[in-house]
Design goal:
Blueprint (H helix, E strand, L loop, with lengths): L4 E2 L21 E4 L8 E2 L1 H5 L13 E4 L12 H14 L4 H8 L4 H13 L2 H17 L21 H5 L3 E2 L4 E2 L22 H31 L4 H9 L3 H10 L8 H29 L5 H22 L11 H15 L35 H10 L3 H18 L4 H7 L4 H14 L6
Keywords: Chromosome, DNA-binding, Metal-binding, Nucleus, Transcription, Transcription regulation, Zinc, Zinc-finger
Subcellular location: Chromosome; Nucleus
Pfam families: Myb_DNA-binding, SWIRM, TADA2A-like_3rd, ZZ_ADA2
């Protein structure tokens, strides 16, 4: 008998016992003469003298156990593996959690042993450095870069921004769920043994080949996402909006062909069509000038100015159709005509409407913003909103900035969150929330 204490390359993946098919627990027996596939037996089957095919009970054997020191006395091989597994699970530096998972060592013992034997050990330093260089060179092209900012966003789970990024985690350069996420399930229970029949072995190899093809498809999709920069979907959509509407429609139709061409070729194709559209529009404009008898660009400027004035006059005439819906209400009709007259005169119309509710009570008149601080920072729509909801400009600007910051942090904002954030009348909060949604300052979650 060879009294040898050793363990396999991966002690967490032991095959079952050849005698009773139970999962092996240390110590167990390995036949030293049967091979090349290891012939393993539990202690119960070994003591019964189990024999199978070429294996005989009088063969030489090895006792497989990890209950022996490796790096220093007091630390068995099993404890070394448990320490490495605990550091990988809990993270480097979380020695309290590492000791809790180890159960057999204190926090100080785990930290001193790991730093002494795995960090400051000169025997391992050159090996670890070479392994790190090999890993960096092998996986240099594997991570999908995120370049819009130095600090990539970390959206909360199931937020709008997280869904827009398809569950991509920039800090880990990986996705929360891979394409064909359960492809490994068909492979996890396959075990190749010597006594497999030819048909069974061929079936197992076919399953492995299918799994490899699914992995290739997963990598192909990642490569398309990385090459075309599809991680930052919002930035991609902003770039798409830079084109005219006709080119945007073409962009949407041709997006499905991006997978068969490179990103440079695809962008050149879209840019060439955008240039073609601009040239055709310029040609039509020059042809219009020629039909109008214009032969110089100076005359063309005068023609464009007169054309805009004519279109404005035509638009004002058609605006009278809007009065028809107010024809039954004399007060509303008079207010609308006064507002249009003020617009024609270039004056911002003042809101002087006094509405009457269904219960017969008059609502408060609109707030006069004249002289209030912060009014100059508002546009016309915001001024009208502050007048209607009777909110001073300074408070509105503060609420607006708070809602925008929360929307950016969450990737979207719900009305309930807005009401919890700003403690004012719920009806005013709804009007402010709807206004910011309509103007595009925030997005719904």
């Amino acid at each position: 008998m060879d009294r040898l204490a050793s363990f396999g390359n991966d002690p967490f993946e032991k095959p079952p016992c050849r005698g009773c098919s139970t999962y092996l627990t240390e110590p167990y027996i390995k036949c030293a003469e049967c091979g090349p596939s290891p012939f393993l037996l539990c202690l119960q089957c070994f003591t019964r003298g189990f024999e199978y095919k070429k294996h005989q009970s009088d063969h030489k054997y090895e006792i497989m156990t990890s209950d022996f020191p490796v790096l220093e006395p007091g630390w068995t091989a099993q404890e070394e593996m448990s320490l490495l597994e605990a550091v990988m699970d809990c993270g480097f530096g979380n020695w309290q959690d590492v000791a809790y998972q180890m159960r057999t060592k204190t926090k100080e013992e785990c930290e001193s042993h790991y730093m002494k034997n795995f960090i400051n050990n000169p025997l391992f330093s050159s090996t670890l450095l070479s392994l790190r260089k090999t890993k960096d060179s092998r996986f240099a092209e594997g991570a999908i870069p995120f370049k819009p900012s130095d600090d990539p966003p970390r959206p909360t789970f199931d937020s709008v921004l997280s869904r827009d990024m398809a569950g991509y985690m920039p800090a880990r350069a990986d996705f929360m769920e891979e394409f064909d996420n359960y492809a490994e399930w068909d492979l996890k229970d396959i075990d190749f043994v010597d006594d497999d029949s030819d048909i069974l072995r061929a079936l197992k190899l076919a399953v492995v080949d299918i799994y490899h093809s699914r992995l290739k498809e997963r990598q192909r999709r990642k490569k398309i996402i990385r090459d075309h920069g599809l991680i930052n979907l919002r930035k991609f959509q902003m770039l798409e909006r830079c084109y005219p509407r006709e080119v945007q429609e073409l962009y949407d139709v041709m997006r499905r062909f991006a997978r068969v061409v490179g990103p440079t070729e695809h962008d050149k194709f879209i840019e060439s069509h955008a240039l073609e559209f601009e040239l055709k529009r310029e040609i039509r404009r020059l042809q219009e000038y020629r039909r109008a008898g214009i032969k110089s660009f100076c005359s063309a400027k005068v023609y464009e100015r007169v054309k805009r004035m004519r279109e404005d006059e035509r638009r004002k005439r058609t605006m009278l159709c809007d009065v028809l819906q107010y024809i039954q209400d004399g007060r509303a009709c008079q207010q609308w005509l006064s507002k249009q007259a003020a617009i024609d005169a270039g004056i911002t119309p003042a809101v002087t409407t006094i509405t009457v509710s269904a219960t017969g009570r008059r609502s408060a008149p609109p707030l006069n913003l004249t002289g209030l601080p912060g009014t100059e920072k508002l546009n016309e729509q915001e001024k009208e909103l502050c007048q209607v909801v009777r909110l001073v400009p300074g408070a509105y600007l503060e609420y607006k900035q708070a809602l925008i910051n929360e929307c950016r942090r969450q990737g979207g904002l719900r009305l309930a969150q807005a009401r919890a954030l700003i403690k004012i009348d719920v009806n005013k909060t709804r009007k402010i929330y709807d206004f910011l949604i309509k103007e595009g300052y925030i997005t719904k979650a």
